[in-house]
Amino acid sequence: MTDDKRTTDFERRWNQRQVDAGVLEGEVLAELVRLGTRQIQEEAELKVDGLAGPATRAEIEDRLGLNQRGSKPPRKSRRRPPPDLVPIPTRRNIEAVYGSFGYAEDPKRPGAVILDKKWVRENIVKCHFGPNNTQYTWCHRLVAEEFPRLLKKASELSGYYPKKVWSWVPRYQRWDPSRGRLSDHSWGIAFDLDPHLNKAGLTGGTPLHSAEGELFVSVFMDAGWDCGINWKSYPDPMHFSRVRG
Ligand SMILES: [Zn+2]
Fold this sequence. Notes:
By secondary structure, the chain is an alpha+beta fold. It folds into two domains: 61 residues, no CATH class; 148 residues, Muramoyl-pentapeptide Carboxypeptidase, domain 2, CATH 3.30.1380. It is built from seven helices and eight strands. The strands form three sheets. Strands 5-6-8-7 form a four-stranded antiparallel beta sheet, covered by helices on one side. A two-stranded antiparallel sheet has the order 1-2. Strand 3 and strand 4 form a beta hairpin. Helix 6 runs antiparallel to helix 7. The longest helix has 18 residues. Bound molecules: zinc ion. The site of zinc ion has 4 residues, from strand 6.
């Protein structure tokens, strides 16, 4: 396989993930399709109109090797994609990236929910972090590598090493069923850092509001994460979530 072919496969998978996550949608997606279509039509010396009709589709299928009768389909890699290929969704598209599950309200714990066991088994994993990896929390498998990496980077840069880190808790937003929406924590993609210090509702005076805290937060912001310290209506300094803010 040539380098070119590998690059194309990589690009195709990467773009497909953007579509699956709803990051690429609507007019933006349509414009990309139109531009790509013109390019393919030019190269194949078809009529260049940007409309992906039957002749253009046949050309694309040829390129993908879909029309070669009797030949084997392209071998798929069994390896999981590296984590930096996982798109960061908006909250609206959270399920497209991290999955969806059935759930019921927990009769013993107001505001909490109980998730479908199969989804939990397949997605929630133990994640080690902290100096010498001696601490751990349960979180979504798609953030289990990225979170400790960012935490390490943020701590080394700022000198702030959170002592308590909580992630996966299936529950409604703010433990309030009347909100009707589940918290990011239900998917295990949000992390509360030192909740006893970085209390929800505070707009100053927490470790994260200091100059060091600003450096710490910037590492997660630069990686595309949403940080509750920036929320206008109800700041939640402890909250770091792998969704687009
Ligand atoms: Zn939180």
